[in-house]
Each structure stands twice: as structure tokens, then as C-alpha cells.
């Protein structure tokens, strides 16, 4: 939407194809977005849609199932409805999906008292009994960050999964180490109150932070032949330009750490680059062609 707004104001014909399944749909509020802190994600989306429409941008509720080269127009965009759109440039913002650990009841509590981003939700659960689901690469560092919001933090991890250094770091920061397997979440009056371990012990917890595995939804970009890095993420330049001429990407599909405000900024940067690229093409197409002489 951010990119569409910039391009529409640049008097470009813009079509946004939105499947209507945003990653943050379960969240009731968004935070850290200057001037929009506390908005619901759906409210922000509605305001954005109205602004884009106000400048003549078109928004289609559908899903893109295929992108392909379409000379001389540029690209063909095939929708699930069967509609086909021709476009000179593409910006792909298909995001990522959160692959969560297999803990009974976790999906039902996601974005309520089972959380991922401490910068998005940490302030709202400050000074409560918190927990972090560990045992994955980087989870100890993640727990050290969550500790910023509460002195009462438990780190849940499988037995023998911590190095001596990691154990020392958690202890130094005052993080309680709970070793074992989580069997279930304890819910009372539709609120998380504890985490039950495989030994039957229940550790009090009012909110649980879970570092998920990020999986980019980049199938459309891969099908176009976009280059990826060693971790499988599509590579771009600072404006979001991919290795395929005419194709940009922005948001969580290329940056797993991008928050809403970061993704919106990336969309704006991509739109400015797209417009500049189109201007260059327009100028080149208007330039007179030199006469060509055939050798005798």
C-alpha cells in the first residue's frame, strides 16, 4: 500500500493485488508505527486502501498464482480468478509465514498471550510473569532481549541444550532456566496462567514469547529466477531491486525482521526506484534512433 500510494501520486497506473490474509491478522493492535501506535492492523489497512483509492490506485481482492515475462509489455500477472494483468514493473510483497513449534494449544493463543516480537508486544506485558520457548539457534540471545521487559522471566529449553557460556549468561541476567519438554499450556478463564512440563510441574506464566522459524513466501520470485542468498532469502539492492530486471521485492518476503513501519518504508523506497526506472525507459523510448547503414 505504501508503494502504491507513492506510485499513484507519481501519476502511474497502479494495481494492488491483495489476498486479504496478512501475517498480523490475529493481532488486535500494532505498535512502534509513528502516529499510528495502537491502531488495529485492519484499521491501518483500511486507511491505506482509502488513500490509494483516492489517488486513482486500483485494489483487487485476489491471489496471484503466476508471474511471467510478457514482451513487449513487461510482465503478465495471472490471478486465481483467471484474470490476466499486464504490467511494466512488479513489486512483490508476499511476506513470510511463521513456522511454530509443536506445542499443544499454541496456535489458538497466537498473538494473544503467545507472542513473537518483543518490540511489538513487550510493553503490553511488561512486569508480568513471562516465558521464552528456547532450544533453537539464537533463542538465548532472544531471551536476553525479552528480559528487558520483565524481571520475572523463565527460559524453557530441552535438557542438555545449553552451553556453559549460555547458562552463565542467562543466570547473570536473572533469567530462570527451566529444562524439560513442554506438554501443554495451562489456560484459566481464557488467559494463559502457566506452562506444564513433562514432569508435571507447572511454571507460572502470563505471556509466552516464541521465536518461530521464518519461511519466506517467495515462490513467485523464485519462479521468475530471482537470486537468493545462502539462507534462501531473495537478494535485493537497497531499493528492493531483485536480480531480475523490472522486479522489486519488499517487506518480510526479503527481510524477516521488518516491522510494519520498516516494510512501509521499504515499499516507499521501491516505488521511487520503480518510477525512476520507468522514467529512464520512457526517455529511452522517445529518443530518435540513429540511422543504420548497411554495408555494401
TrEMBL record:
Instruction: Name the chemical reaction catalysed here.
Output: [thioredoxin]-dithiol + NADP(+) = [thioredoxin]-disulfide + NADPH + H(+)
Alphabetized Pfam families for the sequence: Pyr_redox_2
Say yes or no: keyword Oxidoreductase present: yes
Q: Which UniProt keywords apply?
A: Flavoprotein, Oxidoreductase
Q: Does the keyword Cell membrane apply?
A: no
Q: Which InterPro entries match?
A: FAD/NAD-bd_sf, FAD/NAD-binding_dom, Ferredoxin-NADP_redctase_2
Q: Which residues form the FAD/NAD(P)-binding domain?
A: 1-265
What's the protein here called? NAD(P)/FAD-dependent oxidoreductase
Organism this protein belongs to = Microlunatus ginsengisoli
